[in-house]
Amino acid sequence: MTTNKNSFAYKVWDFFCSLKLSIFLLIGLALTSIIGTVVMQGPSREYLATLSETKIRIYSALGFFDMYHSWWFILLLYLLTLNLICCSIKRLPRVWKTVFEPVLVLDERFEKSLSTVKELKISGSKAQLKDKMAEFLKSEFANPVITEKDGEYHLFAEKARLSRLGVYVVHFSIIIVFIGALVGSFFGYKGYVNIPEGGSIGEVQTRSGKIVNLGYSVRCEKFSVSFYDTGAPKEFKSILTVLENGKPVPGYVNVPTIVNEPLTYKGITFYQSSYGQSDEGVVYHISVRDRKGGAPLKLTARQGERLTLPGGAFLSIMEATADVRPFMKDFDGPGAQVEFTPAGGKPQPFVILSEKYEAFNAQHGGDLIITMDGLDQKFYTGLQVAKDPGVWVVWFGCFLMVVGIIMAFFMSHKRIWARVSDGAVTLAGSASKNPTGFELAFDELVQKLK
Amino acid sequence: MSSSMLFNITMVTYMVSTCIFFAFLASKAKAVGLAGTYAALFGFVAQTAAIALRWKESYDQGHGHAPLSNLYESVVFFSWTIILIFLIIDFRYKYRAVGAFVVPFALFGMAWAQLSLDNNIEPLVPALQSNWLMYHVITCFLGYAAFAVACGISIMYLIRDKMEGGNSAPAGGLLSMFPAIKVLDDLNYKAIMIGFPLLTLGIVTGAAWANYAWGTYWSWDPKETWSLIVWFVYAAFLHARITRGWVGRRAAILSVIGFAATIFCYLGVNLFLSGLHSYGK
């Protein structure tokens, strides 16, 4: 890098080291990120139908439908990473030297490189002034190092030198976060699974469509949902049991899993995510009784199942609900839409309700009165399944980032030099951060000295 | 006394404070500036009491959660954090004129909340039933508030910069109460130095919560993306500070853009885009 400043390699290197590139990339990332918040990511069919064909073609060519994974967005992220690595490599050695091998002598050449300089005429010999300045810096700033050179005294004092490394801690932390994200994407997966109540699963389909074998199985014992009086949901809860070789694992039996309280077993975590009514699981309960009297006969049926009734008639339950209120005004309780076929007759569709509505139920059914007693509704629970071995790397990166930002922001490496000769003091200073703020503090210091 | 009454008192006090700060710019009397700060402080105390009372009221109603759960509560909290950051900067640096450009943000928030938002205390939906809610909301809003203060200061910078038209002679009139242009630039930077770490913490706590609740610390949800956009803008600002030619006017403009992005992240995403942060809609 040192030989030829005009060589191509040097120019490339210089380009990747430049702060202008950082600003350009940060603003570029900010601007391009907007696209993915406006264009639907992983678009639904309904959404695509609202776009013209040309738009769809342009958007997919530019990767707008999966923008944050498009080649050019990833490229911007890689460029940013490369930029901050280059910047760090270029600047770190110099900063290291500044931190651990400070310039102790304020000679004329060095003075010219500093923007905050003040010459003061103060009466007194240089030895007196040296002691006075040392005392002054110690009480107002920091304990100085005194060097004598060419008949003049040089004082150097500094504060919070390590804060200069804060920036590099932040840059390093960003790389750590990216590494964590890569580890997660290579060695982890995200999936989704529905488990009906009473059912269990041993594999999960990931978002990329792969089937992953968990190595154990998870059974949903029960799912329940509760509501506030306002009708807003209060709690979604799955009771889960982990099974190894079909046997429940101690400590993982009947674990309540709710939103914000996931279940983790062997590095795989299950998150309560959604639920629904499981169709196959529903069992209907009805009773059938002779009009002339006698004990009712209790029957159970599944959806669409054809039951044979006493006297040779058939009955199928087409659909049913636990509460008919939304469908039938002035009625409540369970109800079912059934198809009744008398012996040798044609199918008759009608509705049956609970035994509270005997007169209603008596309108149909020939010699029989059929009553809807209720149904066992079964839910399925929808669980997000995630395995991410990189997540701790990401948290470590985040922790470093916060520490680095605090070092870099709330601590400024402030340095003050004083060159003392007979009757004159030249004061110079510099700060790693916020030169404007430092200048104000420096002016105050000079005022106090006057 | 109910929290709602106290919030009304808060709103009126912020209005009074704003008026006093404008009177300060016109009158140039130091005592008036101090009165503006005290009015803001009084409003802040009333608002703190109101938030505490609302918290207690939620327990009385059997819901029992911190008042940080819907749009009304977040707007109120936002205005509280703006005044908090303003008071910190005011007590530390004592540039009273800044109040005229910052307190109005808090006033606007309170007025909007009190006059047109639904202030019912609602129970928490399952997704919000977590301690992460507090960590996440508090850090984010303190960050947003610091950016609001920085934006107010940057507007002062741009006004002063324009009026003085490049010559360094200090301007008279209303501007004479403005801090010097160098000071405004510095204050802008200081406010962002408060805001950036808090925003970073807000994003990190949000990611931690998302990972805990859904198993994904980052899913490019519009809210997440916009918070990152805000982060990028202020990161650019911070790098611009150490690049020649980017201090001063350009820094002030970046700060205003950053706050516009912040507001879009906070409100625009909910109003115009869909996603996970629906404020219990």
From TrEMBL, chain A:
<feature type="transmembrane region" description="Helical">
    <location>
        <begin position="21"/>
        <end position="40"/>
    </location>
</feature>
<dbReference type="InterPro" id="IPR023494">
    <property type="entry name" value="Cyt_c_bgen_Ccs1/CcsB/ResB"/>
</dbReference>
<dbReference type="Pfam" id="PF05140">
    <property type="entry name" value="ResB"/>
</dbReference>
<keyword id="KW-0201">Cytochrome c-type biogenesis</keyword>
<feature type="transmembrane region" description="Helical">
    <location>
        <begin position="165"/>
        <end position="189"/>
    </location>
</feature>
<feature type="domain" description="ResB-like">
    <location>
        <begin position="345"/>
        <end position="443"/>
    </location>
</feature>
<keyword id="KW-1133">Transmembrane helix</keyword>
<feature type="transmembrane region" description="Helical">
    <location>
        <begin position="70"/>
        <end position="89"/>
    </location>
</feature>
<dbReference type="GO" id="GO:0017004">
    <property type="term" value="P:cytochrome complex assembly"/>
</dbReference>
<dbReference type="GO" id="GO:0016020">
    <property type="term" value="C:membrane"/>
</dbReference>
<dbReference type="InterPro" id="IPR007816">
    <property type="entry name" value="ResB-like_domain"/>
</dbReference>
<keyword id="KW-0812">Transmembrane</keyword>
<keyword id="KW-0472">Membrane</keyword>
<feature type="domain" description="ResB-like">
    <location>
        <begin position="19"/>
        <end position="343"/>
    </location>
</feature>
<feature type="transmembrane region" description="Helical">
    <location>
        <begin position="392"/>
        <end position="411"/>
    </location>
</feature>
<protein>
    <submittedName>
        <fullName>Cytochrome c biogenesis protein ResB</fullName>
    </submittedName>
</protein>
Automatic annotation (TrEMBL), chain B:
<keyword id="KW-0472">Membrane</keyword>
<feature type="transmembrane region" description="Helical">
    <location>
        <begin position="96"/>
        <end position="113"/>
    </location>
</feature>
<comment type="function">
    <text>Required for the export of heme to the periplasm for the biogenesis of c-type cytochromes.</text>
</comment>
<dbReference type="InterPro" id="IPR002541">
    <property type="entry name" value="Cyt_c_assembly"/>
</dbReference>
<keyword id="KW-0793">Thylakoid</keyword>
<dbReference type="InterPro" id="IPR045062">
    <property type="entry name" value="Cyt_c_biogenesis_CcsA/CcmC"/>
</dbReference>
<feature type="transmembrane region" description="Helical">
    <location>
        <begin position="226"/>
        <end position="244"/>
    </location>
</feature>
<protein>
    <recommendedName>
        <fullName>Heme exporter protein C</fullName>
    </recommendedName>
</protein>
<feature type="transmembrane region" description="Helical">
    <location>
        <begin position="133"/>
        <end position="159"/>
    </location>
</feature>
<dbReference type="GO" id="GO:0020037">
    <property type="term" value="F:heme binding"/>
</dbReference>
<dbReference type="GO" id="GO:0017004">
    <property type="term" value="P:cytochrome complex assembly"/>
</dbReference>
<dbReference type="Pfam" id="PF01578">
    <property type="entry name" value="Cytochrom_C_asm"/>
</dbReference>
<feature type="domain" description="Cytochrome c assembly protein">
    <location>
        <begin position="68"/>
        <end position="277"/>
    </location>
</feature>
<feature type="transmembrane region" description="Helical">
    <location>
        <begin position="191"/>
        <end position="214"/>
    </location>
</feature>
<feature type="transmembrane region" description="Helical">
    <location>
        <begin position="32"/>
        <end position="51"/>
    </location>
</feature>
<keyword id="KW-0812">Transmembrane</keyword>
<dbReference type="GO" id="GO:0005886">
    <property type="term" value="C:plasma membrane"/>
</dbReference>
<feature type="transmembrane region" description="Helical">
    <location>
        <begin position="251"/>
        <end position="273"/>
    </location>
</feature>
<dbReference type="InterPro" id="IPR003557">
    <property type="entry name" value="Cyt_c_biogenesis_CcmC"/>
</dbReference>
<comment type="similarity">
    <text>Belongs to the CcmC/CycZ/HelC family.</text>
</comment>
<keyword id="KW-1133">Transmembrane helix</keyword>
<feature type="transmembrane region" description="Helical">
    <location>
        <begin position="6"/>
        <end position="25"/>
    </location>
</feature>
